[in-house]
Structures
1.
Amino acid sequence: MSENNTLIKIEHLVKAFGDNTVLNDVSNHIDAGEKVVILGPSGSGKSTILRCMNLLEMPTSGKIFFDGQDITDPACDINKIRQHMGMVFQHFNLFPNMTVRKNITLAPLRTGLMTQEEADAEAEKLLRRVDLYDKADAYPASLSGGQKQRIAIVRALAMRPRLMLFDEPTSALDPEMVGEVLNVMKELADDGMTMAVVTHEMGFAREVADRVLFCADGIIMEEGTPDDIFNHPKAPRLQEFLSKVL
Ligand code: ADP
Ligand code: MG
């Protein structure tokens, strides 16, 4: 795909925690509309890559570009950039002391993106989309894990992000709730959202990913289409990984 279609670009990313170099010269990019799934063993740096994309983690060296802008430049207003990147975590991270509606409207209101009326209308639209409008006035504690995660997704969508980052969004869920969350993510993918998804759901990766990245030993060891990665893996580390998860 053409360079000027690139939404996020990672250039020579190095991330060390003390003397533990977790990412060692990672370069990649995600094009607008592309769905990228990131696989790899536990501790291989998958979360760190995602968190560097929105600077929740500061790269030790290397650059991250969002829509052509170097967001690792100290002059860049990262809070402004982060508004364009929604993130969904394994453990939902909903605000427990706020209703579902407030969880969703908070950021669009705080940032001035929407008026109260607009934010309420958007929250209603999003909640209907995930079949949870009846929970608008409920508190997170009263929801199932699957419901919480669907709310976390629409809360991120309320900011109308250009990129969605998912860090193992179904890993904390009981098995019977995984499907409802993956379905919301598939709909989002069908709608054309640009997505980077860390997941162990291989069915999702096969079905949704345009490109799969396999992380190991601090690098992206292999990348390709789902067919390349699942049916023709080259690196022995990837073959070993797949033999355990498939
Ligand atoms: P993954 O998501 O693939 O399981 P992570 O990106 O969470 O891997 O972590 C990669 C490595 O970085 C692990 O060794 C982890 O212990 C380490 N690490 C991650 N975050 C921190 C942190 N904030 N401080 C110190 N070490 C960290
Ligand atoms: Mg992780």
Note: The two ends are 30 Å apart (CA to CA).
2.
Amino acid sequence: EFDVLVVGGGPAGAAAAVYAARKGIRTGVVAERFGGQVLDTMAIENYISVLETEGPKFGVALEQHVKAYEVDIMNLQRASRLVPGRSIQVELASGAVLKSKTVILSTGARWRQINVPGEDEYRNRGVAYCPHCDGPLFKGKRVAVIGGGNSGVEAAIDLAGIVGHVTLIEFGDALRADEVLQRKLRSLPNVTIITSAQTTEIHGDGKRVTGLGYKDRASGDAHRVELEGVFIQIGLVPNTEWLKGTVELSKHGEIVVDARGQTSVPGVFAAGDATTVPYKQIIIAAGEGAKAALAAFDHLIRSSVD
Ligand code: FAD
């Protein structure tokens, strides 16, 4: 039986594992893919004290830091069920069952894709998902934001201050963002809003994005916008489907946590992109992971007198 079992091996899980192991308690990490989302990114320029690094390099550094401690890493294993109790059980897709006194859920999230030709091919080469991360890479350039909900409109407002021009593309016949955001967006001189537009393709020259194709859903006409970047903002989906019915989730599927990372289940904590904590960033996930581990340790010293 573990004292702390971390489910998920991204920045949140890695930080939680290091903090737990440094308390000298039995710590395990089970991860479908150790490293998490950072493995899919290229430049990381906003992890404070690291001026610039690459995603895969950062992923290796996370693993090395965890491996410097006595942590049982179970990589390439997917958790499929959580069973609360005095000893909490985590069932794996392989059929194995792990037991722990406390569990830290840090299964992260994934960006919803639009699934059009060019999206995968030009990912990190013009196709981006995170304006806080990649916005500055498009300084002075032309970009599109796909998605007219709150995140898309926020992204367009944010990017308009950095890039040369922003085209906001919305599938429906109206934007869905809060009115105050829409008003702000419409006040900006370098933003074009296109509604009833179905993105059909992201064009490139083999190296980088050069344009975006869309169909006007009213007329059926095909259009093309010349640009250098496309930000896809149609939703961030937390990897929490396996927790439905056991841990309280928000209407977006995020694990509801308090200021210490405590979930609705005693002894179960959570951190990172999978939770209700706003702003999905590496430094935030890592900080939340550390916090959840300290809270789990606190829970252990308060509950185990035996
Ligand atoms: P994740 O990194 O998503 O890790 C989740 C972990 O849980 C993984 O190990 C995964 O395999 C595992 N997992 C999932 N489900 C299960 C399961 N059922 N059982 C077991 N394991 C499971 N942020 C920045 O701060 N700066 C950037 O420059 C930046 N660039 C980005 C670029 C891209 C393309 C993307 C996609 C994201 C970027 N982000 C960036 C966001 C950042 O990567 C995330 O905020 C951060 O990785 C969240 O960490 P996490 O540990 O919560 O989750």
Note: The chain has a mean pLDDT of 97.
